[in-house]
Amino acid sequence: MFGEMKVFAGSSHPELARGIAAQMGMPLGASRITRFTNENIKVKIDENVREADVFLIQTSCPPVSDNLMEMLIMIDALKFASAARITAVMPYYPYVRSDKKDESRISITARLVADLLQAAGADRVLTMTLHAPQILGFFRIPADQLLATPILLNHFHTQDRSNSMVVATDAGAAKFAGHMAKRLGLPMAIIDKRRYDDAEQAQSVALIGDVKGKDCIIFDDEIATGGSIKEAARILREFGARRVRVGITHPILSGNATEVLSTADLDELVVTDTIPVSEEKRRAIPQLKVLSTAKIFGDAIRRIHEGRSLSEIMES
Ligand code: R5P
């Protein structure tokens, strides 16, 4: 067994870090992060961590690379302050989309991030809903992936599903959509989405299944520019869907996502808080509802500390 459990946080998502600590009934560890005028980052751990079992929470959100660097420096500071074990808790994993060499001479940056975490001194990783589960294989240290699906399923379970159906936004999403449809006891449909060339936006051209008069539920791992969801909602309405609801794990909301989504034909957009969503964005997208992941992260941290299984809370 390791020593005392301590939870620290970087500066990326203080609200979630406080939520996780509150769920666990413990304070966040004291640390100070300073950014100098030359953009160098200094971290000072302000309490004793000798032989402690330390969990460091830092999600990936803008400024993405600064937040990653801050995390690496914090891990280094904790390591050299003699922490016994350091778990990098990353609700949204940095550079997760760079997970394959699908062009010549490019970096698989998600693997580079795994190398950097280990080089800095991380002993374990805890993250949520990776874009591809095989990213766990980039690590040579234990890495656990929590899923947001129990949180999303719980939300839709509590609502009227009598006239509903799950819709996959493309053929690639069909397996996951099928899984969610089974869990909700619903039928499913698949949108035929095509990309005609690299520069062009993906377009939904057809639909497999009958959504006429149905309440459609779409699930996805992340929403970035919002283009895919807006396009899916458009085609579902065109085919006569009555309502369109969406459940997403990571609300990246990059580029002009706020504008895109505020004009998308959606009845509900449910996301989790793995990435901070500003008040401004929440106001601009009235259909947006943010569900907390604090409990599942708090439970997972405690279980890791106590050497207990995570399977029960990873139940998808
Ligand atoms: C794609 O593989 C992902 O699961 C999401 O569908 C995608 O990231 C959404 O991107 P956007 O919101 O920019 O259309």
Structure keywords:
316 residues, alpha/beta, Rossmann fold, five-stranded parallel sheet, 10 helices, elongated, binds ribose-5-phosphate
Describe this structure in words.
With 316 residues, this protein is an alpha/beta fold. The protein has 2 domains: 156 residues, 3-Layer(aba) Sandwich (Rossmann fold); 143 residues, Rossmann fold (3-Layer(aba) Sandwich), CATH 3.40.50. Helices cover 32% and strands 25% of the residues. It is built from 10 helices and 14 strands. A 7-stranded mixed sheet has the order 10-9-8-11-12-13-14, sandwiched between helices. A 5-stranded parallel sheet has the order 1-4-5-6-7, sandwiched between helices. Strand 8, helix 5 and strand 9 form a beta-alpha-beta unit. The longest helix has 17 residues. The model has no long low-confidence stretch (mean pLDDT 94). The structure holds ribose-5-phosphate (R5P).
Output the CATH topology of the largest domain.
Rossmann fold
As residue ranges, the low-confidence spans are none
CATH architecture of the largest domain: 3-Layer(aba) Sandwich
What's the overall geometry? elongated
**CATH first level of the largest domain: which class?**
Alpha Beta
Ligands bound here? ribose-5-phosphate
Q: What's the count of strands?
A: 14
Give a quick summary of the entry.
The protein folds into two domains: 5-147 and 294-306, 3-Layer(aba) Sandwich (Rossmann fold), CATH 3.40.50; 149-291, 3-Layer(aba) Sandwich (Rossmann fold). Helices cover 32% and strands 25% of the residues. The protein has ten helices and 14 strands.
